[in-house]
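Let's practice the habit of predicting before peeking. Look at the sequence and jot down your guess about where helices and strands might fall. Then scroll down.
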Amino acid sequence: MLNIKDLSVEINEKLILNNFNIDIKEGEVHAIMGPNGAGKSTLSKVIMRDENYVVKKGIITFNDEDILKLSTDEVARLGIFLAMQYPISIEGVTNADMLRTAISIREKTNINLFKFINDLEKTYDELNFDKSKIHSSINEGLSGGERKKNEIIGMKMLKPKLIILDEIDSGVDVDNLKTIAENILNYKNENNSSILIITHYPHILNYIRPNYVHIMKDGKIIKTGDYNLALKIEKNGYETSVIEEKENNE
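Done guessing? Here is the structure:
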């Protein structure tokens, strides 16, 4: 589904991603972990075609289509969704208006407003979210955890094929994290979607078990394992976990 090969990326003439490689197949869950500055969030921004990042070499294909030639909106219309680490507020644009417009553009037709509102209200209920926020400005007055829930509401309404979760667990309490994770997992299982989880800690991975866990450092993946690798990272830290894995494989 998503293939990234030999990707090197700069911002302000500083190399952030350095010969980065990953291959995510349909229905798989991959987690990328690593210390600050490893390039994890940069990866998500490059996939979504943030123009601040300059691709020096490499390829990114999604279902065999070269997305490096596309704009952000074109990438989104292919079925890639990014739940952002720091969702911003947008005054004067309501959640309902934004989602209705996005769905209409994707489907290239005016949508059934009655069905849209029913689906949106159902999604708010599934996230245990205040339905009065449907017609409020996007993220206005919301806490960090509520903003993350709002991201998942958008995900469920837009129905992506690939979900990128950038630090979805940061600033979220245990109860809300469980609700968020259950909704993501239910959506994934119903739609056979793929998930790329970017995180520092394995909290979200306790609910959404990855097929692969990758440790990232200096702009590239330096170690790949399963869920147990995430547990080792939590217990011993990144450097010790990598050293232990190398010793066990020698």
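How did you do? The longest strand covers residues 14-24.
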